[in-house]
Specification:
single chain
Length: 122
């Protein structure tokens, strides 16, 4: 199985886990939590895909750095502008967003570990 397919499987698993968390959340937090998870999935899915596909190439570090800056920017813009503008509760929305991003970062690491776990020293 390719790294891309493993990443898509992890992404789908994270989405199912997020849906389960929303289903068990209290009604007062459900909208904000679901929105945070959705934004996290929408941002992280393409960034993770690009990162996984670039492992082992000369552009990996640039893609990884740009992806981390984008992730940080999305969290900051969401907390400072989007969430207050929509009059949402801050904690459930940011928790959903940040936890989703962290879970999908772990998926990235696990995805590429199988292919890159050996030490390639010269």
């Amino acid at each position: 199985m390719s790294a891309g397919m493993r990443y898509l499987g992890g992404l789908a698993s994270a989405a199912v886990l997020g849906a389960a968390v929303v289903a068990f959340a209290g009604p007062a937090d459900r909208l904000e939590l679901a929105a945070g998870i959705a934004v996290g999935l929408l941002v992280q899915a393409p960034l993770g895909w690009l990162t996984v596909r670039s492992v082992g190439t000369a552009r990996f570090q640039a893609i990884w750095l740009l992806g981390m800056v984008v992730r940080l920017g999305v969290v900051a813009l969401s907390g400072l502008i989007l969430i207050p503008a929509l009059n949402w509760q801050l904690v459930p929305a940011l928790a959903g967003l940040v936890v989703t991003i962290v879970v999908l970062l772990v998926v990235e690491v696990v995805t590429v570990m199988r292919d890159t776990s050996g030490v390639m020293a010269r």
